[in-house]
Amino acid sequence: MTGTELAREALPRRIMRRISRLLGPRGVFLEGFLEHPVMVGSIIPSSRFTITKMLAPVKWGECKVFVEYGPGVGTFCRPVLSRLARDGQLIVIDTNPLFIDYLRATISDSRFSAVLGSAADVEDIVRAHGHDHADYVLSGLPFSTLPDGVGPAIASATHRVLRPGGAFLVYQFTAKARDFMAKHFTRIDSGFELLNVLPCFLYWGWKDTPADE
């Protein structure tokens, strides 16, 4: 590729970055979506209605380690931190360095850790932060469009890392995510949020306790 061709390819990226700065967090989210649409799954962040309903079943008094896959620009991060115990920890995992850099620059809470990596490696990531399990895991990753094998690997690793009684919280634009969860979680509560762009399905997969088994 010639220097002229490289310059032409870089031009839209420069324009996109300028637009992102003007739009603030939503601009960063848009840029991340345009770069990796398969991994982001939405062109704008979730609504406050989705956030409230998604987090409602969490027993915050029993939550010390909360993990989020695909945090984007932190739409869920701040609500989670506002509910999380003072000695708790929020670990977010994303494969997009744009989002990770943005979160590290804008969230200074000592309970917050942003990790550039794959959700399939959640067990190693949680252990690296000094914990042997997570209490809750939240995901907005588009399971139905992830590369082959990635969705099942994430669902399996999530079930293993959760403590008994913990839950996998998933919000999606299609109902297919439930199929990935059902292979590991016997109890899955479901909901739907119309006041979101796009309207989305909500799932809470609960890991059985010894008494349940």
From TrEMBL:
GO terms for biological process: methylation. Pfam families: Methyltransf_25. GO terms for molecular function: methyltransferase activity. The keyword Methyltransferase applies. SUPFAM superfamilies: S-adenosyl-L-methionine-dependent methyltransferases. InterPro entries: Methyltransf_25, SAM-dependent_MTases_sf. Keywords: Methyltransferase, Transferase. Residues 67-166 form the Methyltransferase domain. This is Methyltransferase domain-containing protein.
